Amino acid sequence: MSLTIQLRQTTIVTLSGRLDTESSPRAEKALAPVLSAAPRHVVFDLAGLDFISSAGLRVLLGARKTLSDAGSECVLVNMKPQIERVLEVIRSLPGMKLFASAREADEYLTSIQERVLEGE
Amino acid sequence: MTLPSPRSLAMKLALALLGACLLVYLLILLDVHRWTRALLLQSIQRQGDSVIEAAAARIDAQLLRVEEAPRRLALGLTQQLPSREALERELCANVDASPTVFGSAAAFEPGAFAPGLQAFSPYCYRGSGGREIKDLAKDGYDYPSRDWYRLSRDRGEALWSEPYFDEGGGGILMATYSVPIRGADGRLRGIATADVALEWLQRLVSGIRVGRTGYAFLLSRSGRVVTHPDTRFAMKAELAALAAERRDPALGRLAEWIAAGRSGIERTQDLRSGASSFVVFRPLQASGWSLAVVFPEAEMMADVAALDRRLWTTGLGGASLLALVVALVARRITRPLVLLTHAAHDVAAGRLDTPLPEVASRDEVGRLTASFAEMQTALFQYIETVKQGAAAEERLESELRVARQIQMSLLPRTADLALERLGCEVFGLLEPARAVGGDLFDVVLRRPGEVSFVIGDVSDKGIPAALFMAMTDIHFEAAARELRDPDAVLARINDALVAENSANMFVTLVCGVLDTASGRLSLASGGHTRPVLVPASGPPHFFEGDIGTVVGVVPGLSFRRHDLRLQPGDAVLLYTDGVTEAHDPETRLFGEERLLEHLCSAPRGDPRGLAEGVRDAVRAFAKSAPQFDDIAILIVRRAAQRTGAAAVAEARLDLDGGAGELVRARAWLQGWCASQGVDADAAHDLDLAMDEVVANIVHHGYASTAGGRIELRLALLDDVVRLEIRDRAAAFNPLDAEGPGEGSADGGGGLGVHLVRQLMDRVDYARENGENRLVLERSRSRCR
C-alpha cells in the first residue's frame, strides 16, 4: 500500500495497492494528520487501489464521518471495477449511502473543479 | 318561561319593536312637558300681571293724590308771591289735607322769594309733637344740592325722588314729589314738594301673597330694593350689585330691564332662598318704580312634575306590557324555527329519522320546514345507498382476500416436493399487482428424476385473469402428468382453453421438463418472454429458440420443442413481463439488458437468492413508481453434484497465524487462480472473502491464543471454485458473529460478513471433529 497526500484547499489523497486487514491500520495512522487539518474538500483518488476489504472500508467510513462532523466533504474517484463492485455491495446496507456511485462522484468533482477554477 | 337568548330572533324582534315604541313615547313625553311648561309660564305671567295691576292701581291712586298738593302750590306761586305766613299756612294745609303726606315744602332759588334772601325753604311737617314748621335753610341744610331739589330743577320737570330715610324726621322711609315753580316769565323760582311716608306702601306690598310662598317686592328706578318681606334687603340692596355679587346673569338681566322701565318675566334665583323662581315685573305709572312678583318654580311646577311622573309611570307600564306581548308573539313565530334547529342538529349528528316539528302555517317558516323535510328524505336515501355500496364493496374485498388465498394455494409448495434429493432445486415467487393476478407458475414431479414446470401470463389482470389462470393451471397439471414433451403439453392446454374460452382471453406460457440425472432440458414457448439460462459458471444468456404463439386462441396449434443440456449447478430462469416491463418514475423500462446485467454479477448458488435478487433489483429500479403488472419468477436449477465429483485441481496451505501469513496466503491464492483459469473477478472475490474470514478467525476464534493453525484448501469442481477454511479454535462460525445491520458508519464486523455472503455463491459452516469448517463457493467465471 502506498499513500500520497497533497495538501491544498482541496486535499487529494491518493491510495494505491491493497487496503486490507493488514495495511488498513497503517493507512488510518497516515490519514490522521490530514483529517485533523480539517480541509474543506477531500478527494480520495483510488486509481491505483487494487483491493479493499472491510477493514479498508472502515478506514474510509471513519474518515468520511470525521470530515462530515467537521462540516467538510469527501469523495471517492477513479475506482477500479472490483472496488466499485465492493462498494456496490455495501451500498444496499443502511447508512451506507455515503459512497455515491462513480457517476455522482464525477459530477461532484467537476463542480469542485469549477469552483477552484473560478478562484474561490 | 325561560328568557330567550339575546341573540335569538324573538329577542331581536322584541327589542327592536320595544325600542322604537319607547323612542316615540319619549318624544311625546318631551313635547307634552314643554307644552305644559309653556302654558304654565303664560299663566304665571298673567297671574303676576293681574297681581301687579291691582297693587299698582292702589299705589298710583295714593301717589297721584299726593302729587296734587305740590302741583297746586307751584301753580299758586307762579304769579304774586304770598307772605311768608300765608305760605306757611298753605303748606300746613297741604299736610292736613292728606294723612299720607308727611310734610310739604317750598324751596326757593336765591333771591327768588325776596331780594337778598339767599336761601329760603319753609317746611311744614308732622313732628313728634304735632305739626311743626321750620326753615330748611336754617340749620345749615344745603337743600339746593339735594336730589329732590337738584334733579327737578335740572330737568325742569316734576318727578318722584328715590325713596330715602328721612334724616331729621325719626328715620322713617319716605319719598318726595318735586314740582318746579316758575314765574310768569318762565324763570325757575324754586321747587314745591310733598313728602310721603312709605310705610303704607311697605305694608301694602308686603301684604301681597302669591300661592303658598310667592311674594312681591318694590324696586326704585335705580334698582334699589325698596320693600321686601326680608328686612335684610329692604332699602339695603341694589339689584345690579346683588347680581354682580352672586354672579347671577339672570338677576343682572332683570336689573337691566327694570332700570330700562320694561315689563316681563324672568327665571332667576330667589333673593331670599336661592331657589329657582319666576319673577314677573312691571313699572308703576306714577313713580317709575317697578313692582316685581316672585313665583317659586318648585311650587309652580309641582303640577307639571306630577303630570310628568304620571306620564312616566303610564309609559313604563305600557312599555312592559308591550314587551311582553312582542316577546310572546315573537316566540310564537320563532318557536318552529327553534324546533327545526334542534332537529337539524340531530340530523347532522346522524339521527336521520329525527321527527320534524309540525308546522301547519303556510308562512316562510312553514315553507322552510317543508324544504327541510325534503332534504332529510333525500339525505336518508342517499346514505342508505352509500351504506349498501360500502357493504357490497366490503363483501367484494373479503371475496378478493379469499380469492387471493385460493390463488396462492394453487402455487406449488416446492419445498414439499423434496426435489433437492432428486438433484433439482426449484424456487418460484408470484407478486400480483392487485389482490389477485393472472400470472402463474407450477411444478409437477412426473416421476423421480423428471420435473415438469410451467410459467404463464394471462392477457388480463384482476379476477377474470385469475380465473383464466386457474383453468390454465388445471389443464397443465393434467397434461404434464400424462405427456412428457412440453410442446405436447402446450398443444393440449391450447386445445382445452380454446374449447372453453368464451371471453377471448389468452395466455402466454413457457413449459419445460428437466431430467435431473442427464441434465436434459426440454423447453417449449407459447408466445412468452424469453427464458434466461444461468450457468454455474460463465455469462448468463437468453434462450434462443422459437418463441411461438400465444395459447388459448387458435385451435389445433402446434409448438416447437428445444432440447438443451444443463450442467450441474446450471439454472434456467423463467419470468413474466412484469419484470422486463417494470418502469421507473421516468417510465424507462427495466428491459432484458438490465436483467442480464443484474444476473451477470448476482451470486448464483441459491435459486431463492437469485429469484429474490431479481425481484429486489426490479423494485429498486421502479423506486416510487407503482407496480403495474404482476410479477412471477421461477428458477429451476440442476443441483451441483459435488459429492463424489472429482476435483479438477486441488491445493492446500497451512497458516500458523503469525504476522505476514496473510500475505503468503494471498500470493498462494492468486497464483493458483491464475493457473486454473479462474477469472480476475472470481479471484478477487475469493481473495476478499479469505481476508475477511481469516481476519475474523484471528480476532475472534484465536483471540485468546497467541496464534493458531488455519488450514486453507482450494478446489475446482465443475467450474466452481471451492475455498475451504478450517481452524481448531472453539466452536465459532466466522460468518455468524454479527449481522450486516450492525455495519454502522465506522464499520462493525458485519461489514465483512455481508461482503462475503454477497460475493460468494454459497457459504456453508460445519463443526466437525473439533474443527470449524467453512466452505465458500464461487463460480470460476460469471460474465466472461
Describe it.
The complex is a heterodimer of chains A (120) and B (784). With 120 residues, chain A is of the alpha/beta class. Chain A has four helices and four strands. The longest helix of chain B has 68 residues, at 9-76. In chain B, the strands form five sheets. In chain B, strands 1, 2, 3, 4, 5, 6 and 7 form a seven-stranded antiparallel sheet that branches. In chain B, strands 8, 9, 10, 11, 12 and 13 form a six-stranded antiparallel sheet that branches. Helix content of chain B is 42%, strand content 23%. Chain B is an alpha+beta fold. Chain B is rod-shaped, with a radius of gyration of 72 Å. The interface between A and B is medium-sized, with 23 and 26 residues.
Give the oligomer, counting copies of the same chain as homo and different chains as hetero: heterodimer
Spans of at least 5 consecutive residues with low confidence of chain B: 739-747
Q: From the alpha carbons, calculate the radius of gyration of chain A and give it in angstroms.
A: 14 Å
- Rg of chain B, Å, rounded: 72 Å
Query: Tell me about the biggest sheet of chain B?
Result: 7 strands, antiparallel
C-alpha end-to-end distance of chain A = 33 Å
